[in-house]
Write a structure and sequence with these properties.
The complex is a heterotrimer of chains A (about 130), B (about 250) and C (about 120). By secondary structure, chain A is mainly alpha-helical. Chain A is about 70% helix and about 5% strand. With about 120 residues, chain C is mainly α. Classes of the chains: A mainly alpha (about 130), B alpha+beta (about 250), C mainly alpha (about 120).
């Protein structure tokens, strides 16, 4: 009997719709467009700042446009999804061991959230400090 | 035997008569304690002796009976019929592998990938047997023990979309195996393995989808092994960039 | 067997930017994109004068400018890597070098713009 192995083709464009885990992965990857988009907003803000008071004030006004507000509202959700997925995977990428005992993964993940909360609080205090 | 029935649909492929795989349906008695493998064994014993599939231990340690059940790569001895009943069960050969016959896939490529990562101890300081054993503390053992548990069932290759999109990718199990040796305190062969795995078809094809670790029946966590290897690769890259005088 | 990749250069930026953006992007997007524009915080929280004080904080403004630079630079390169890879995941495989060149090129251009602005401010 001769061998005739059969190769199954998979769709390179729609594979990620076939399983919920794959779809969640693509959403996670997609969050990078908003994270990058916001970095670009900050970059533009700094550029306007360098261009002087009028340019910067106009930038602040543009942040109030419906498009800007929508981008930041939707982007914030995607940014939080990035945070949750990034921290969720941190115990796999950064395992820790004390002697012969493995540090529980939940502790490593919790440590990341603690740092995030502390840093966020610090930034808010800085912003609101009078 | 129970009078309840469950339908099992299997993707058949007989190279001597089929141009393409075809679905074939079997009506199998529903027994509450059966795993899917038991249902397949019933088919082969009573309904259709031509059905071909691999299996051996029937207890989740040999890694032979991997197949897709309702689109998810599983060990057929590990999943219970009652968890699908009364819905129909669809069984296919493991995804991302060529089909040899029925549920039997061609694993030559996988075997080559395993061998490429030099899956054996290359002692850091070799010594003759007369000088005694290599000593290792419990703490040193914990660093790599998890990665020794792989049973080569290749469910991770079927779960990984990057394996599907790029068949050249060395893949989760082979990279977890490389990590098993790289992290072993007795081993000194890291740089040799790095030449094989710090490549585009090695660790850098992985985008940390993480499904490999989800489907692994032995909780090896190949995804974690690969991410830790990426960190190692980064440290190694910058060390040789900034301190090239170190010996390779 | 293609030889050792230079990927660590981009991956380290991806990982560092991923960590930084996971920690700071939500609060910053909330602050600058919602709280201030919608008036939940005082309107002058991000005023020209306060921002100028920030970018001149520390010797030669290094602390203020450094913080702003890092918070733009790392997430930008993280996003360039991930966005490029996600387009490749969507099937644009044959042109991987092109996609990544465009992604990293955009991040490089953004870096130049940010650096020049911070030096000029």
């Amino acid at each position: 009997m001769s061998r005739k192995p059969y190769i199954r083709k998979i769709s390179t464009t729609s594979w990620w719709l076939k399983r919920p885990a794959y779809t969640r992965y693509m959403i996670r990857e997609f969050s990078s467009f908003f994270v990058g988009g916001y970095a670009a907003v900050l970059m533009i803000g700094v550029r306007r700042l360098a261009q002087g008071r009028e340019a910067y004030d106009a930038f602040l006004v543009s942040l109030q446009s419906p498009l800007a507000l929508t981008f930041h509202a939707v982007g914030l959700l995607f940014a939080l999804y990035h945070t949750v997925t990034f921290f969720g995977a941190s115990d796999k990428a950064l395992p820790m061991q004390i002697g012969a005992e493995k540090v529980p993964g939940k502790l490593i993940v919790a440590g990341h959230y603690a740092a995030m909360v502390a840093l966020s609080a610090f930034i808010l205090v800085l912003a609101l400090w009078r | 035997m129970s009078d309840k029935i469950i339908e099992i649909e299997v993707l058949r492929y007989r190279p001597e008569q089929d141009a393409e795989p075809v679905w074939q349906s079997y009506k199998v008695p529903f027994e509450p304690e059966w795993v899917v493998l038991d249902a397949l064994n019933y088919v082969k014993d009573h309904l259709d002796g031509t059905l071909s599939y691999r299996w051996s231990c029937h207890m989740g340690v040999c890694g032979s009976c991997g197949m897709m059940v309702n689109g998810v790569p599983v060990l057929s001895c590990h999943v219970f019929v009652k968890d699908y009943y009364p819905a129909r069960i669809r069984v296919e050969p493991l995804a991302h592998f060529p089909i040899e016959r029925d549920l039997v896939v061609t694993l030559d490529d996988f075997m080559n990938k395993l061998q490429r990562v030099k899956p054996y101890l290359i002692p850091k300081n070799d010594k003759p047997v007369s000088e005694g054993e290599f000593l290792q503390s419990p703490a040193e053992l914990v660093k790599y023990k998890q990665y020794t548990l792989c049973i080569n069932c290749t469910l991770c290759y079927s779960a990984c979309p990057q394996v599907g999109l790029n068949p050249d990718f060395i893949g989760p199990a082979a990279l977890a195996l490389a990590h098993r040796y790289n992290a072993d305190s007795r081993d000194g062969g890291q740089q040799l393995r790095f030449d094989e795995i710090f490549t585009h078809e090695g660790i850098w094809e992985c985008t940390f989808v993480g499904e490999c670790s989800v489907v692994c029946p032995k909780h090896v966590d190949p995804a974690g092994a690969i991410q830790q290897t990426k960190i190692e690769a980064t440290k190694d890259f910058f060390k040789s960039l900034l301190m090239p005088w170190g010996n390779k | 067997m293609s030889g050792r990749s230079k990927e660590p250069i981009f991956w380290s930026l991806f990982a560092g930017g991923g960590m930084l953006s996971a920690m700071t992007t939500p609060v910053l997007m909330f602050l600058t994109g919602l709280a201030v524009p919608l008036g939940w915080f005082a309107a002058d929280t991000l005023s020209y004068d306060r921002m100028m004080a920030l970018v001149h904080f520390g010797p030669y403004g290094l602390i203020g400018k450094g913080a702003l630079f890092v918070v733009i630079f790392l997430p930008m390169w993280h996003a360039a890597h991930r966005a490029g890879m996600s387009l490749i995941d969507l099937g644009v495989r044959g042109v991987k070098p092109l996609i990544m060149t465009v992604s990293y090129g955009a991040a490089a251009a953004g870096t130049v713009i940010a650096v020049r602005a911070l030096l000029a401010v």
